[in-house]
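Slide 14.
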Amino acid sequence: MPAMTSFRSVVDPNDCDFLGHMNVSRYFAACSDGVFAIQSEMGLTANDMRNGRRLSFAVVNARSDFRAELSAGDAIRLETSVTEIGTKSMTFRHRLVRSDGDTIAFETVFKCVLLSLETRRAANIPDDVRALATQWLEQEA
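Slide 15: predicted structure.
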């Protein structure tokens, strides 16, 4: 399964809640960063969003599983792949992995639409973006 490492960090004590583990909001923040990283690799860079085609993926549905706790000091990485490419949507699988031991701590699937930042409506995925996205497309078993 092809995946891109789309985010790396170390869990900071400020990322943790009063229960002593990484707060839920931080899991989703890492995945949000991962979407922006992979879409940049597909040619939809921050500069392109501001001054070019004015397109960006926006999450419309998320399914998530919390599998293992993360604590302050844990080195983590986010592995992102594409599971489906539609006309106006793309589905991303994110796996947040504890680097020590490669334990999957969190997995989520984001269905995203390609949003026109001008009209705030779904837009067709350009052919060049689609072509680049296929390198992270998971193959069916």
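Speaker note: Strands lie at 4-10, 55-66, 75-85, 89-98, 103-116.
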